[in-house]
Amino acid sequence: MSMNRERPSLQTPQSPDSLLVQKCKTGDRGAFEILVMKYHRQVISLCHRLTGERDTAEDLAQESFLKAYRAIGSFREDSSFYTWLYRIAVNVCLTYRSSQERKMSEAAVRESDSDEGGPPLEFGASEQTPEKKVLQKEMGADIRRALEALPDEFRSALLLREIDGLSYEEIAEILDVPAGTVKSRIFRGREELKKKLAHHWRR
Question: Could you tell me which residues come within 8 angstroms of residue 144 by beta carbon, excluding any fewer than 6 positions away?
Fold first, then answer.
């Protein structure tokens, strides 16, 4: 009797995601569609923050889900499905970043230049001197270039922490490194940004 009572308790820790994953492994596409609907916005948000481009983020999110669907059979469930999916999305974004680095740099320059043709601001127009406008544009471009110049491991950890708001432990699981390594990468990423942008605070 006691042995029969213990068996159900072994299955109670299973999360809804885990049950859906098990169905996916048997070929249930509907189960995977539920997971897509559950995490669609979060994955797009992650890709958007890592690339800075909304249209690209949607494409990369779709690619991430496709990779997850194809690899679901090899998912060992030693981490949560959410963390595993995030890891796939981060890798997809890093691959895109390395292959499109020049294109992204040119897009950042075009975005900066496009501000010149816009209508003048009505609010505080007297305070927006030509010098301030130049400095603001220059700083925005410098921040983008500074982020782009960071090594991928620093940049991804820094964005996941500072912009995506994830904990050190979550980032460690996603990047598959110890939490101490995550903290070190974030610290070094911040220091690199400070060095690259220091001239703005010396003016």
Answer: 52, 108
- The DSSP letter of residue 95 is H
Domains of the chain, CATH where assigned: 14-99 (1.10.1740.10), 101-112+128-203 (1.10.10.10)
Q: What is the pLDDT of residues 18-52, one digit of tens each?
A: 999 999 999 999 999 999 999 999 999 888 888 87
Positive/negative CA dihedral, 91, 157, 202, 141: positive
Amino acid at position 39, single letter: Y
Distance CA 21, CA 203 (A): 55
* CA pseudo-torsion sign 55, 61, 64, 70: negative
The token pair at 62 is 């779709």
